[in-house]
Amino acid sequence: MKSVLSERSQLHPAQLERRDLPESAARAVRHLAAEIAVTVGRCPEIATTLSHPVLLRHIDAKYGRLPDAVHEAMRPPATAAGVAVIGRLPVDDEELGPTPYNWQKATELAGTRSPRSGSFQLDVVMLLLARCAGEPFGWEGQQAGRLVNNIVPTPGHEHEQSGASSTALLSPHTEDAFHPDRANLLMLGCLRNPDRIATTVSSIRNAELDAAQRKILSTARLPILPDVSYGSAFGDTPAPPIATLGDDAGGTTLRFDPAYTPLDRADDEFRSAYRHLTSELERVCVAAALAPGELLLVDNDVVVHGRVPFTPRYDGTDRWLKRVNIRLPQRRRDAEAGEDGYGQRVVAPFRTTRGQNT
Ligand SMILES: [Fe+2]
Question: 207 C-alpha to center of ligand 1: Å?
Fold first, then answer.
């Protein structure tokens, strides 16, 4: 069945909070990132994971010096939509070189001394901005633990439910919904998007559910399994049921990934409530067709995101995003304390306090 989400290819600016950086502030971010990139040097040892202590020290020592306007722009989205578009960092297409075909190639390119390797500088930009927002982190099992992921269409993965796909609709989902340590904020930075491919976002705050539906979806009925980007070796791992809806300081939170939820194991009552939730998330969906230099900041506790289908070019000009997971230490998920997250571990070098579940 063709989803209505496939038609959501236009930017809906009125429904998205915009936080445009003053030009001087945007330039300050690029200048600081360039300075750090030159100081630490581009080399595979640093570019592979971005967790090298020298780079981390520079980020931690210097992000506080960025103009107040940058820190202000990176605060968590505050509207019902739970999303903000932050514009606009200067990105020169010439500095990037061709869009790589997969994340491995992107990582490799970031570590080379090619004259067109602005990608590494933009990795540093993403880390600086994410650090202004909270604690950037990666996953050991995803893109080799790199703190900044590259999202590019990849040959052979066109139909997957993962960031490497293209021709398939990437269904709305909570990022890393299967794991208790998933991001509170998700930051997507656009390097290149010539066909204005839209990212879709839907907030639980805008969805209408009756009391009975809320009650059913707030009970732990089904598990959510890890997505394909983590591999597929989870057959023997216990899969505990989790609640779709949660609560944070009186506000409803959402943990939703239908592509990795075995709905056929649920009873009719649950399936009906879940179907209603799914249709509500489609109804309230808005689309952000990011332009180069724009960032999408998504509250992953209340918003699900996806992407409309598109035809990959595979000629070096494809859509290219960078993604960072961010933890907000002030938020806790005590109800999920017993989950082991299928053995997946975070790479969290900026973590200043103990884990959310400890
Ligand atoms: Fe995602």
Answer: 20
